[in-house]
Amino acid sequence: MTIIDIFKKINAVEPPKLEDFESIPKLIALTHSKNGNDRRLAASALGKLLKSIPDIFQAVPHLIRLLNDEKPQVRQYAAKALGEIGDVRASQHLEKLLTDEKDYVINAAKTALSKLEITKPEKEGQVGTLKPEIFTVGELTKYIKNLLESDRKLSNLWVRGELSNLRQHASGHIYFSLKDEKSQIKCVLFRRVGENLNFKLEHGLKIIVMGDIEVYEPYGEYSLIIEEVQPDGLGALNLAFIQLRNKLEKEGLFSSEHKKPLPKFPKVIGIITSPTGAAIQDILNIIKRRYPLVRILIVPTVVQGKEAASSIVESIKLVNELPFVDVIIVGRGGGSLEDLWCFNEEIVARAIFNSKIPIISAVGHETDFTIADFVADYRAPTPSAAAEKVVPDMQELYEVLHNFHVRSLQATQHIIELHKSYLKQIMNRPIFRRPFDRIHSYYRELDPITYKLQTALTKNMTSKRKELEIIESKIITLSPESVLKRGYSMIMKDNKIVRSISDVKIDDNINVTLHVGKLDAQVKKIWRR
């Protein structure tokens, strides 16, 4: 509906209907139009319509503003409309029009002032006075509320500032202040909006918010009701990525000491991805070509959208309950940051970290990095690269085995040839060509040595025999028998040799050993020298 249609409908004979009131925001918006005729028609239409509406306050400030419009007809119709509304607060602004350059503007202002029941001046030139209007607190607050909330500039406005005084209510609503170096404003972020935030609100964060100014009547406070939040200078998803990456890195989830080694020859591979995507076909084709011996378990999983993160977590848990799976590939093909966002969710990162089975992250293209890449045991730049990493190449294994076989044969042949050469050298030595020559030479050397040995042995035997005869003579000469033979005797008492008179006493029995025979005797007398 155009402004002309609205104007015609309002100027019709029938009284305004409910649907006419729905045109009020459009009329108020037209008071800001650059077209002077639109502003004039809007002022005229508001004057005819708003007197039938109980809540007329929202249009008053816009009409007061039009009293200073550059177009005199706009000023004229704005004055008429204010007179029809009957708001005495417009009187001071109307009085300024009494000196307007256009007579029809002055007449419109006088008419409006008369309708506002302005008292006549007592003297010529004296400014009239208004009958005072007394507001209740609630009425004043409501007027301010309508004034602020009806202002177009204060609806869907964007504000930049620094976040402070952050607090989250048990209901899930978030309250904080947005400030700059000069001022601050209270903000409210209801749960329905906060639940859709991709990043975490933190004290000191620079943000840009969009919302509406709202007055909370019980306290007479105005706040900014936020409908959208963006980081200032950095995308929301990028900020959320950095926040989560820093958090998990501090917890040690990216540490190399937690990385599990990939099996060299897996028997069963679990693949967590969409069964209809191009990525699964690339993975299957490459694995089948490289290593057809392996078995593959495909776990159909949602990898895009709101349900993707929980779907990935459930799939990882499911595969971990299977004892025969050796390694897992988690991933999908390329896409935008939003498409790949499920792999940046904290629950997915922790599920990968807690997996007992090694996980290869294969998300997007080579330039795409996700939180899952940092947590996984191995990051593949693409799903195809993951397939090449997870299994060996059968053809390469055949070539390696063939090379080992050839090298083994070559090494064996080399060793045989080497030993043949050694054997030939040994066989060509003189000792093997005429072995008895060496024996005969040893015989010739052995004869004189034998003679010398026999001569030395005979000489040594003779010398030793003489020494033995001398020793034997000495032994015989010094033996007790030889001594007794020369007339000596040996006296013993109690089987002990008596060497001194101190060894016996008078009447002791003693034994006397002679050269021939023994005597038993008794000591009768002892002489001392």
Quickly count the helices: 20
Through-space gap between termini: 172 Å
The name of the CATH architecture of the largest domain is: 3-Layer(aba) Sandwich
Biggest pleated-sheet summary: 5 strands, mixed, barrel
* Number of DSSP E strands: 14
Low-confidence stretches: 10-21, 118-130
What is the rounded Rg? 61 Å
3D architecture notes:
With 529 residues, the protein is an alpha/beta fold. The protein contains 20 helices and 14 strands. The protein folds into 4 domains: 3-122 and 129-133, Leucine-rich Repeat Variant (Alpha Horseshoe); 151-233, Nucleic acid-binding proteins (OB fold (Dihydrolipoamide Acetyltransferase, E2P), Beta Barrel); 262-390, 3-Layer(aba) Sandwich (Rossmann fold), CATH 3.40.50.10550; 485-522, no CATH class. The strands form 3 sheets. Strands 1-2-3-5-4 form a 5-stranded mixed beta barrel. A hairpin with a 5-residue loop joins strand 1 and strand 2 (174-179). Helix 1 (3-10) runs parallel beside helix 4, helix 3 packs antiparallel against helix 4 and helix 6 runs parallel beside helix 8 (103-115). The protein is elongated. Mean pLDDT is 83; it is low at 10-21 and 118-130.
